[in-house]
Amino acid sequence: QQQVKQSPQSLIVQKGGISIINCAYENTAFDYFPWYQQFPGKGPALLIAIRPDVSEKKEGRFTISFNKSAKQFSLHIMDSQPGDSATYFCAASSYNNNDMRFGAGTRLTVKP
Amino acid sequence: DTEVTQTPKHLVMGMTNKKSLKCEQHMGHRAMYWYKQKAKKPPELMFVYSYEKLSINESVPSRFSPECPNSSLLNLHLHALQPEDSALYLCASSHQGANSPLHFGNGTRLTVT
Description:
heterodimer, A: 0% helix, B: seven-stranded mixed beta sheet, globular
């Protein structure tokens, strides 16, 4: 079922640093690419999402970069904070199917 | 608090028991989902309902039986589960089509003894 590959598995960043998480996909039918943030004991929550007609989307400290030709997208967290410590999942789905598929996840730890 | 409510939060059941997980949303979403999440793993799609009809079944064993009584409710009936079925079961909802984001509940932590 794993159609989206995510790296790294875990990431440790100092407070104020930049966190970068990468994802790649193969299915060219995918055309919606969200990122979800999950805290322990909670369900995943939408962080930011992009469609392939744009190469970058920024919301506050969070930016998605999208490379359609390479079938890759990444999440950048600027000025990382300890409160950002969570597991991050990239995901992908296609328009005609409610078939959201998740990457393996990245456990981010931001050290104070 | 999430807008998708799941009950119970925790459930312990024996392998011969029958139990049900419940999910409710009032956001007017017409697509509802069940995902299974094992520890330190991503959510895995189990079932999708679209306009109260089952549209995706990811080859889930028949001991899991979904039901969508109306557009706001989603149930997952459990029977004769195995210990390896212990996991966090997540319900989600979304608008139908147009690349709509999923809204997740906080899940039911299921332990099968």
